[in-house]
Design brief:
heterodimer, A: about 350 residues, mainly alpha, two-stranded antiparallel sheet, about 60% helix, B: about 575 residues, alpha/beta, Fumarate Reductase Iron-sulfur Protein, Chain B, domain 2, 6-stranded mixed sheet, 4-stranded antiparallel sheet, 15 helices, elongated
Amino acid sequence: MLSSPFITRTLSVDRIMLRVLYALLPGIALYVWYFGPAILVSIALAVTAALATEALMLKLRDRPLRPFLSDYSALLTGVLIALSIPPLAPWWLPVVGTAFAIAVAKHLYGGLGSNPFNPAMIGYAVLIISFPHEMTHWLSPQDMGHSALSLGQQLHYIFTSTLPAGMQLDALTMSTPLDTLKTQLHLGMTVSDIRDLPIYGRLAGKGSEMVAAGFALGGIYLLIARIIPWQLPLAFLGTLFALSGVFNLIDPAHYAPPLFHWFSGAAMIGAFFILTDPITSPTTAKGRILFGMGAGLLTFLIRAYGGFPDGVAFATILMNMCVPLIDAWTQPKVFGKKGSKR
Amino acid sequence: MIKLRSFHGGVHPPTHKKESTQSPIMAAPLPAQLIIPFRQHAGEAAKPVVQVGERVLKGQLIGEPVGPISSSVHAPTSGTITAIELQQIAHPSALPDLCATLVSDGLEEWGVRQTLSYRQLSSDELQKHLRRCGIVGLGGAVFPSDMKLRHPTVVNTLVINGAECEPYITCDDMLMRERAEGIVRGIEILRHALGTDAVLIGIEDNKPQAITAMQRAVDESSHPFKVVAVPTLYPGGSAKHLIKVLTGVEVPSGKLPTDVGVQCYNVATAYAAHRAVEHGEPLVSRIVTVTGNVEQPRNYEALIGTPFSELVELSVAKADTNRYIMGGPMMGVELPAVNVPLVKASNCVIAASDVLFPPPPPAMPCIRCTRCAQACPVELQPQELYWFAKSHNFGKAQEYDLFDCIECGACAYVCPSSIPLVQYYRYAKSEIRARDHEKRAADLARERHEFRQFRIEREKQEKAERLAQKERAAAEAKAKAAATATVIATPVDPSADTDDTQQMRIDAALARAKEQAATTPPKNTETLSPAQRAEIEAIEERRAHIHELAADAGADDEPPKHSQGN
């Protein structure tokens, strides 16, 4: 015999995940526009690896395949990993990263809902630590005068690691705007000099700033549709803006301006798609603000002083660790217990 | 206009109230047989005061209240009591309860109806009358209404609950539309008994006709009551939430509204109070909505004890109906059978089918999305409570205020993983209650055991004391006897010295000597041979040597302590 309530509102897990995937579309479209279709190949590879690993792990764990394969959560992990690694990477790079994310970061912790760390960020962290060289082959924007590769040539490179005769990998790829900034600052250049380099656009990296804007657009849709809570992106972007703003005001020659931070690297995709993963972020309003602020602070510190060009992934993982503590500390007072001590 | 507040959370399920408000309240035909449970209210069940075979009149008392929290039960029509036995009732446990079976004679012959003029009555007298008439809260909690008039604090606001926030249910809506005048008169009686000034009548704004009718009745009565349209938001009809919306006061957790100077009654209860006081009618009928998967959804005025099956028959259940729900879809209970009787708590019966209420998809893992926390009107963290309940971490669940949960179902309604959250909370609550019960039983057993030990010990001591006393007494008696003997043995007149007394003297002396010898037994060391003495000396010497060695060692390190039992 069933018990009350007998009715439910139908916004299921798969629909939530699907909406998050839709929200990634503008960013992906702009990615293709500025950097060519190679990213789609990466996404296809990562998604295939994600679903295959998910199926295998479900089988090993003796869980039903259908409900979990169709909840889009593994698919979303795959897409997020593909978006965080260079598109012109050998085929096994997204495959290894995604397989590790799904098998270890997700299923070994108990599967959907039980993983303490964001699987996509764990996958990314494994790749950048294990294969730092392969992780630097970022494509230059297509309008930068270099001879761009056709889709066929890109596919050829991804699967065989060979370029058409007479082409150099260095001519096609570049380091990321954040990486370049860090390297050139070390070499003694000032921020304004560095930003005059051809890879930079109005706000941050040429092309990549527009992709970040695309992710921000999708993120705003998620906010309006109430798929994600507003506290996380606001606290994260706000903290990043405030910190970089203060340092930029004090020492503009050595610290990039806030908008540069916002539209570089994984700041936007992190704010709206990574930090907002409900499973690995706090559940209370106050906790989310703390979590977002912590991630913003760590991202800024890693970018400004750390060994890696971008800090969103490590900031996310470090903050993921604090979630149980944050949740326990920020429990709200229940109805009729306001003004009393818990 | 009064300033309305809001409460956290809440949901907007489809209301489905239109279906059953298209036609007026209809008096249900008199059933041939009624089944009247003796437990229709919160607290102690009523005690039967009629015999099997007895003829009863409509409104005659058949069950009298037992103890302070209890209420009366009456014959809903005239007829013969044919049985008083355990029968199935509208309870999800499907456990039977004591019921009277009444075969109606079709005459509807009323017994004595005592009407009162409430203005001349004290609150006490009104309380007695309401208790006699079996008036209980008709919003669903069926708490005896007289108890709610008894309060130690000053109550300055009377809130009348006409919110009716649950989907499908329209019995209060229709009652307000059709019998607003009676409700207003009932409110005035309750206000008089409570001695309050302000009266706020809260009605959700999806019932414009009820609001208009109530406003008109209030205007005509010239009482200074305020009819307030409150936003439609489930569970806005929860007394504490309605009080928050209307007065801004949050009733503290674990306290009663009267603790903050507010009392709350349902509109139907006010109406029942009016019928009881001004017409002398005990609570023998109520308005009930029959809706859902039926051809003619509507409201009936039905006698308490009417089998639900008769009402469903009147509304014609559709062919694919496979179960019935008493109450609304958010908090209702599935009926164990459709022929169980209507009770005072029955506001609605919904014919359900798998099309109307599709069975939920299999539950997915919780993804901590906190839609439940956003929907929770008590501001709980349902996702944490679920986690604790699932992992049997009941202490933690209590720490996270599990017992403040009102089981409104808003969390489960919005859960994207289709987790039956409320079931987990009910399970955790019942487990905790069972454990508390067990703990209390264990504590009691331990106390008993400890007392028994104490008693045995005490008895032993007493016995020993008694024994000692006896011995002392015996010794004293002996001594006394000896003393008398001496006294007798030393007569004033020596010439009276006879052989007998001499003999006694000798005996007494011997006894004294014997006694002395017994009290100071010779030491076994006093009669030793020289060889034995030498041996003892040697032993003593060795002992002294060992003590010296031990003292030296002890200065360096302590002998090891026993770690057991720490």
